[in-house]
Structure prediction request, 176 residues.
Amino acid sequence: MYVLPGAESKAYRTVMIDSPVVVIDKHWNPVRGIPVGQGFAPDYLSSSEIQHIKDTVASEFRDTLVKEVTAGGYQVVERPGADTVRVSPALIDVYMDTPDHTMLTFPDPGRMTLVMELCDAPTGHTVARLVDKKTGNMGVLQGPNSVTDNADFRRAVQDWARQLRAGLDKLSGQPL
Prediction:
């Protein structure tokens, strides 16, 4: 986590966590194969299925952040107080593994990048940023929940939640 120069330590005890923004990689082209004779015909996901995947990923990530900061002794609030830091997370360039029914190519490894900004809620001043990329098997697309059930996905979001908690501890002057 990069703490901006000049950001003062403040005893943050409450945290507002915005709903994460999820941006799918523009090159992700999810295709499910449907048996047709000897081969497979492409079956593209609908926009509502893609939105459901994005909503599921965002919800799981926010829940993980809430659990981690709560375990660290912070209270998650909906309205800012004098001791509130606002966390604005985004998962960008999300690229999930998709099954390759043709067996002609190897699947691309999954990846996603976290961009998270922490602001002093009362003033709106940015105090820290975290940008980190994770790669691995981010979920084979067999259904929207198969992504968040994936071990690499869970490890990635848990690691980012721990980094957030450590960053909050650092900003609040607590020993790490």
